[in-house]
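User: Here's a protein and a ligand (glycinamide ribonucleotide). What would the complex look like?
Assistant: Let me lay out the input and then the predicted complex.
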Amino acid sequence: MSKKRIAVFASGNGSNFEAIVKACVEGVVNAEVVLCVTDRPGAYVTERAARAGVPMIEFRPKDYSSKAEFESMLLSHLREKKVELICLAGYMRIIGEVLLEAYAGRILNIHPSLLPAFKGADAVGQALAYGVKVFGVTVHYVDSSLDGGKIIAQAAIPYEGTDRDDLEAMIHAREHIIYPEAINKVLPLI
Ligand code: GAR
């Protein structure tokens, strides 16, 4: 089976971007990351993409008059690169109609909670404030709802401490395993 072509969207650090690239390069995932997209030019993910030799699109949403306008720009790049699957990895922006229609059922997201708990921004902070004892991560399909698409994979992370850095390190480590696993579940379906 030929390798599927993935674009990863990220707004920040990009550790999940790197984990997906590594899984593809090592053959754990039968795909290739052909594009990295960021809405924050200069974010650390751009350094990771440069190191990995993955082509990059950096854009500023405020340079466009609407979400539809910048998503149309992105769509033309995605089509040019023949992208078949979009993986959101810390992309802190709601996907709009243009991309949802063009890539229906082919956009995934990773979220640092056991959805449907703690949707939206700062899920880890929300869960800590609530005093939960089992944290977690979720990979799900993206639809027009906020963090509400069908769940593909989840992992629970029991943690009774209060150190956010420790907790986030555990969450990231788990994300880097579960995202490639979730991609492997989806690839035969697209
Ligand atoms: C990840 O923990 C991911 O779950 C979270 O952003 C982080 C990005 O880390 N995503 C969300 O909160 C989406 N609502 P990374 O840039 O190191 O991959």
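Summary: The chain has a mean pLDDT of 97.
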